[in-house]
Design brief:
It is built from 13 helices and 13 strands. The structure holds pyridoxal-5'-phosphate.
Length: 447
């Protein structure tokens, strides 16, 4: 085998930068989406809700749920879901720590707090077996994140929720349209909420959406942030009727109609595009099936589950199969071959001082504790898989098109690096860098 590129050998990925850019380009905005967005601008209807309501109806039908509500972003949709579930003063939300902050942080502004639960090592989604320990008399809801498109173990999670009378919110920001044992993600818990921002696989621009079959949750989610739709001809929940006219959350969550217009055309193409992404990504991982140290973060489709739009694909790195070579050095060597990978995934939230120390609202103690009836930080010591995750995984290229010859080049680079790990051991600096990030999206003009 040829010498590794990092040691002066030739690069494995020889495709032109233009071909690689096309293979990875996202989002894809069609002429139709441009025209629909322009029509909103020309009509001056950016703040109206007619197109948004059409998008909501189409989205609900696609999702297979009765109700959907658009929001200005996923953060607001998730906060509305938390409010809908009744999370308020002193209540606890159980959430993985290995996620983006907007799965959890908004609960503080509702007067509640967050208890972090560990994740499963293969899926990196919340571990149903870790839930019991986290539950207290103040627990209201469980936030499930289908992390980097991998479906969480919903059967086991719903069983725990039923046993303890808890509501389940699915954060589907990474996995729109994905399946768990043949059922659509977002339809298994009591309410789904998700981001549709430009970096996600369902990309419409700034925007988020909530979907549910439950009329009371729907009404509460409307009343929270949609003042102009919080009115008696929409709201059916009796306890909310005396308070129509103003938003109960004191916030405004309306979706921008340019986003809604783009969303309608993205929805029409979404399933065929994500089917092609899954074909491309599965092809890539199948090429690497027996390569030492290399494992896919994916689900076996024979189970009726799938990886949705395969948002930000991850690989696992099994260090013990490669004499302890670090994921950092492994990634460096792959990048020298022309691959474009990065060590780690999300930095666990419990390690950020906003969650561990900060007194955000001047209660006189850390907010996360001040809003609870116990020191919920005690549970942070039971997060071993969460804390191990960043040294085990790395992002791999997110192929949008099934182009076998191109994808083979990338797979070949993995094979070359994996079979030559001993040549990399000498230059390894396992403790030198910090993997993991608070967020991934960068503006197109940001460095
Ligand atoms: C992106 C994301 C969100 C937040 O969505 P925005 O639209 O950026 O507000 C929430 N949860 C997860 C898991 C996300 O990745």
């Amino acid at each position: 085998m040829e010498k590794l590129a990092i040691l002066g050998g030739p690069k494995t990925v020889t495709a032109s930068p233009e071909d690689v850019t096309e293979l990875l380009r996202w989002p894809i905005i069609t002429k139709e989406a441009e025209d629909d967005a322009l029509a909103v601008l020309r009509a001056g209807s950016m703040s109206d809700t007619d197109i948004t309501c059409q998008f909501e109806n189409e989205f609900a039908a696609w999702q297979g749920l009765r109700h959907a509500i658009g929001y200005c972003n996923g953060t607001m949709a998730l906060q509305a879901a938390m409010f809908a579930c009744g999370l308020g003063s002193g209540d606890e939300l159980i959430c993985p720590s290995l996620t983006y902050w907007a799965s959890a942080a908004q609960v503080f502004s509702l007067g509640g707090t967050v208890v972090f639960a560990d994740v499963e090592p293969r899926s990196l989604c919340i571990d149903p077996e870790a839930l019991e320990r986290c539950i207290s008399p103040r627990t209201k809801a469980i936030m499930v994140v289908h992390y980097m498109s991998h479906p969480a173990d919903m059967d086991a999670i719903m069983a725990v929720a039923r046993k303890h009378g808890l509501l389940v919110i699915e954060d589907v920001s990474h996995a729109q349209g994905g399946l768990y044992k043949g059922r659509k993600l977002g339809t298994i818990g009591h309410v789904a909420a998700m981001s549709l921002m430009s970096g996600k696989s369902f990309a419409i621009g700034e925007g988020g959406i909530l979907a549910t079959d439950d009329r009371t949750l729907y009404d509460r989610a409307i009343a929270f942030a949609h003042y102009e739709r919080n009115k008696p001809d929409i709201i059916q929940t009796a306890e909310l009727l005396p308070y129509t006219g103003l938003p109960l959350g004191g916030v405004k969550g309306r979706m921008h109609q340019v986003s809604a217009a783009v969303g309608r055309s993205q929805l029409r193409l979404y399933d065929s595009r994500t089917a092609e992404i899954r074909k491309a990504m599965n092809y890539f991982w199948d090429l690497l099936k027996d390569v030492p140290g290399v494992r896919a973060h994916r689900v076996d489709e024979a189970s009726g589950s799938n990886m949705a739009g395969w948002y930000r694909p991850l690989g696992f790195y099994e260090q013990q199969e490669a004499a302890g070579l670090s994921v950092y050095r492994f990634c460096e060597a792959l990048n020298a071959e022309g691959v474009g990978v990065g060590p780690g995934c999300n930095t666990p939230l419990h390690t950020h001082p906003m969650f561990s120390e900060m007194d955000i609202y001047r209660h006189g103690k850390p907010t996360r504790v001040a809003l609870a009836s116990r020191d919920v930080r005690e549970l942070d010591k039971y997060l071993p898989e969460t804390e191990r995750a960043n040294a085990r995984c790395y992002s791999v290229p997110w192929f949008k098109h099934y182009q076998p010859e191109l994808i083979q080049q990338f797979a070949q680079a993995f094979i070359k690096v994996s079979l030559n790990y001993d040549a990399l051991l000498a230059g390894d600096l396992p403790q030198a860098r910090q993997a993991g990030r608070w967020y991934f999206y960068k503006g197109k003009n940001e460095k």
